[in-house]
Amino acid sequence: QVQLVESGGGSVQTGGSLRLSCNSSLNTFFRRCMGWFRQAPGKEREGVAAYLRDGSTHYADSVKGRFAISQDKAKGTLYLEMNNLKVEDTAMYYCAADSSRRCLSDDVPAFDYRGQGTQVTVSS
């Protein structure tokens, strides 16, 4: 049973923008904290951004000022607005969720629930 489904990935040039979406069928308890992490080939998972239910957010230093995480609470949809994309942002991006009260971007890769991922490719 797929509980987190990402969409919105694609190929863009350096400086371009994309918006990722994550639709969730999880009970709200299990998505107290939601976020995005990414993984490039041959590299470890990297937490990108986290969103706590109270609206607080946390970002990895590598994306601060360029990415914005938000949530449509009515729909239970999580978004990641990505601007000024760089080649090094190329990766598979995953949505994740957890009931944890600790909600930092570094925590996201270890969350209990994650989707199948959506590919983001940035070319120069």
Brief write-up:
The chain has 124 residues and is mostly beta strands. The protein is 0% helix and 48% strand.
List the helices and strands and how they pair.
Elements (H helix, E strand, L loop, with lengths): L3 E4 L2 E4 L4 E7 L8 E7 L6 E7 L4 E3 L7 E6 L4 E6 L8 E8 L14 E2 L3 E6 L1
Parallel strand pairs: 2-11
Antiparallel strand pairs: 1-3, 3-8, 4-5, 4-9, 5-6, 7-8, 9-10, 9-11
Q: Report how far the terminal alpha carbons are from each other.
A: 38 Å
Low-confidence segments, given as residue ranges, are none
Say what oligomer this is. single chain
Shape: globular
User: What is the averaged pLDDT score?
Assistant: 94
Helix and strand sequence: EEEEEEEEEEE
Strand count = 11
Tally of helical segments: 0
**Rounded to an integer, what's the Rg over CA atoms?**
13 Å
The main β sheet shows up as:
7 strands, mixed
In helices, the fraction of residues equals under 10%
Strand content: over 45%
Helices and strands: which structural class? Answer: mainly beta
What does this entry look like structurally?
This protein is mostly beta strands and 124 residues long. The protein contains no helices and 11 strands. It has strands spanning 4-7, 10-13, 18-24, 33-39, 46-52, 57-59, 67-72, 77-82, 91-98, 113-114, 118-123. The strands form 2 sheets. Strands 2, 4, 5, 6, 9, 10 and 11 form a 7-stranded mixed β-sheet that branches. Strands 1-3-8-7 form a 4-stranded antiparallel β-sheet, with no helix packed on it. The radius of gyration is 13 Å and the shape is globular.
